[in-house]
Amino acid sequence: MPELTANPLPTDGQPLWRPADAWRREPQLTTLWSWLSHSGSLTEKLRAAVGDAFHVRVLHEGVTQLSAEDAVLLHTLPGTAARQREVQLCGAIPLVYARTLAASKAARWLKDLNSQPLGDRVFTAADTQRSAIEVARLDNTQPLYRAAVRNIEHAPAILWARRSVLSLGDSRLLIYECFFSVPER
Q: Which of 108, 141, 148, 183 has its CB 3.0 to 4.6 Å from that of 49, i.e. a possible disulfide?
């Protein structure tokens, strides 16, 4: 798999994405580390932790123009139209904000999901591969943070997020996941 990082330096209030292992020793991540670094289905991990309380709250589905950085990660051109889906993965409370971007024919993976988790669809495909996971610390100066917390009543000052690309045959899905809280085991 190609290296995920498109631009190692943050610009215009964008987060600094670093390989997950670069954050391994960060003291603030003791509780969150197993969630951020999990390479399997986050949907399944959350279900295992919260049981029947798990559900998806769809916030927005539509079309957007890809930023230069997102376009690089999806192997397409900046400004390309892409399908975007924003959801909260919830137990009794929202646990994770997730944004998925898919350009051209990859958009079929987001079609007609409604409140079904994307993980249920993509991780059952035999050829699903995840790129290296990158992690970033987000605050209110960053658009991704603001998008994640816009429906949260008491937003934390800092969010930890991860991103990766899921490859399914010739389709690529860019997934951002921002963690509000994680279930205690």
A: 183
